[in-house]
Design brief:
Chemotaxis protein chec, alpha+beta, seven-stranded antiparallel beta sheet
Length: about 290
């Protein structure tokens, strides 16, 4: 996750364009082998065991290695050995950006030093830990809501990478926002319980089809009930993991059914809207504490 936030830092400093960042993250992901693949290759786990861990990740926001240890498939020493084989973040991203000719490596190293200094991060920072998102992107809402919002946004970025295998970032303010006049849909879901939330994704048709195709595992070419259901199910899975996070903090929550409506539908007031950039175009996240 650290590479996403360092990329956001480069983007907002004007050192990198959004297209360059998406391409760099995509290229970096292609050379970074997933932990499960490494485990199978070394004979430490079977493919079925890896799939079992992946399935569990759809219900709880935990790292692959931690779950594999808890399930008895790996021990901590084996996880550390596997992690050592993966390229260190964000150094792999730096190398990719340099190799693509977007920025010279010396300038990237200087930006990384400034990034770490500005946000109090030492060179040995564990890149697998959730990043304190508010340091880069202050949420201008009430303090109680900001705590939930930060957790929700960070989880959404992780789940987009986990379930959609898509590079995503928080765009700089100058980037074009979604037009209310363009064709698209709003997919929403309410969370109820000890705390109630309104959540949703607002997407143009092109981005909707790409997200649906990635979640479905096959190319979808038209916005129909299946495509909308796929986007709704991604939101449902993501919100299910969010409910798991809430449960871990002693907050009971459950999900209502998802709804999909075309642009122009009436939404409740006081919704926090956050643009998220992806390699297939922008989408808008909707979130409110009710």
């Amino acid at each position: 996750m650290l590479n996403q936030f360092f990329g956001h830092y480069l983007l907002n400093r004007g050192l990198l364009a959004s297209e360059e960042l998406c391409n760099a993250i995509r290229q970096e992901k292609q050379v970074k082998v997933k932990l499960g693949t490494l485990a199978v290759n070394q004979g430490l786990m079977t493919a079925a065991q890896v799939e079992e861990v992946h399935a569990l990740q759809q219900r709880c926001d935990q790292l692959f290695g931690k779950l594999a240890v808890e399930m008895g498939y790996l021990n901590q020493e084996e996880v550390e050995q596997l992690l050592a084989q993966q390229q260190e973040e964000p150094l792999a991203l730096l190398q990719t950006i340099s190799d693509q000719g977007y920025l010279p490596l010396a300038k990237l190293e200087q930006a990384l030093r400034e990034f770490r200094s500005e946000y109090g991060m030492k060179p040995g920072y564990d890149a697998t830990l959730p990043y304190p998102l508010h340091l880069l992107f202050p949420f201008l809402v009430e303090e109680d809501a900001a705590i939930y919002l930060e957790a929700y946004v960070g989880l959404l970025l992780r789940n987009m990478e986990r379930f959609l295998d898509v590079p995503s970032y928080l765009p700089c303010e100058e980037e074009t926002k979604l037009s209310v006049n363009s064709a698209g849909y709003v997919v929403t879901q309410k969370i109820y319980g000890d705390k109630s939330f309104f959540t949703g994704l607002r997407l143009r048709e092109k981005a909707l089809l790409e997200l649906a195709s990635r979640f479905y595992g096959e190319q979808l070419n038209k916005v129909d009930e299946l495509a909308l259901d796929c986007v709704g199910e991604f939101l449902n899975v993501h919100n299910g993991v969010f409910c798991g996070l809430l449960s871990g903090k002693g907050v009971w929550a459950d999900l209502e059914a998802q709804q999909a409506n075309p642009f122009g539908c009436e939404l409740q007031s006081r919704i926090y809207r956050l643009d998220i950039g992806t390699s297939f175009g922008p989408l808008e996240m909707l979130f409110a504490v009710q």
